[in-house]
């Protein structure tokens, strides 16, 4: 192909390389110039035009693109009509994309004028998704190059259809793992399986111990599960841990524990007979893409996954920033930047009865919300941020004279997540994180907030701190600002339990006493009465206690 300026006398039949604006209309780039086009150019005083002229043996860009798209399309891949030198390739069925790296490299090495770009090998795709595109750079290429590229990459792109449809999910339990976390994990898993047309045929909860897990695995396979996923209440730390031990006790084998994908390191791959068994890492409780997806999709497509396959995932395995990974901005165990307190005070008190705002109810002669704000102010947390919503004016009036920052949430009716999002957004960038405090906990002790802040130890991997009593977690919860994006992404009337569960190894558990108020929120009239009684009892004890030194 010849490319460059052509006198008008030689330009008929050539392809215009650039658009030319003329009175009465534009001759667009890519137009094959006709005698009428030449006459218009001449009338405009133009003597030459930059154009491409095909030579013997050349193949026009669209014909070349379609020829090569046909050549590279393998099983279950559909090439589309070529346009402006481009032919896109689409998945004809849902499945896992397979790319031959060697063939793709050979195709793109034929000539710089011929290119093929694809999605990542082993990508999960739905029917109709674009999976690749052939692009011819110039307006035409020699036919010999087209045939060389076609020969180099026959069937380079293919789709392995999803085959496994019946999945069993097992959830082991320990004290402190909330039912909401298990329910959300199941919902997230069902959503993950949707692209494959697979379904959860059974979900079973059981103690976090090897013996009951072995029985549950055997039962799941006997019931026809083609894949079993185990969500452990505690992360798998060793081949002798509960989940690997339970699989071996059932007669299965552990093929690989751990993978060079982050997040997703703590995945276990095993088999029980012919049925794959996945020990899910904590990040699999989140809908965000992680290493669990890489292996799950391959298995659902019936593709073999070996320990070596997993070991080779390191290049590209660093998927996203995670909380436990060191940040460029150094942090110390001293948390010199301090913490904010975010008090959630936007709810409608729907469980209290008609017309009652629990935050304004008095406990010990002061409104509930004022007691909570005063507790936060008596701690080292600064600033203290109060998120308002329902009856904003009355809540602000109840806090008159206190050194707090008000943030209004106009979307408070959508649930707690929107208030959390509003509060987190107001936290200064200069602080290390925030204590998320519920506004309806009138017995909250200032000392508890200080102890939660003291438990923060990023160098030791303690990026969250939560009060714990008898295996149950209470409030408030301290969060490193590394989790702010995840907290802000929550939707609906939910808290952050799923994020806690997915990052269990990063939680510092702070033992608390009952009188520190970490478990009593006044959601109902009965709980409000309990709070009033406890406050009165505490005040009586203060009045009757002997003076110091007596």
TrEMBL record:
Gene3D superfamilies: MoaB/Mog-like domain, Spore Coat Polysaccharide Biosynthesis Protein SpsA, Chain A. Pfam families: NTP_transf_3 (PF12804). Signal peptide: none annotated. The keyword Magnesium applies. InterPro entries: Bifunc_Mopterin-bd, MoaB/Mog-like_dom_sf, MobA-like_NTP_Trfase, Nucleotide-diphossugar_trans. Keywords: Magnesium. SUPFAM superfamilies: Molybdenum cofactor biosynthesis proteins (SSF53218), Nucleotide-diphospho-sugar transferases (SSF53448). Residues 341-503 form the MobA-like NTP transferase domain. The keyword Magnesium applies. This is Molybdopterin-binding/glycosyltransferase family 2 protein. It comes from Xanthobacter aminoxidans. The lineage of its organism: Bacteria, Pseudomonadati, Pseudomonadota, Alphaproteobacteria, Hyphomicrobiales.
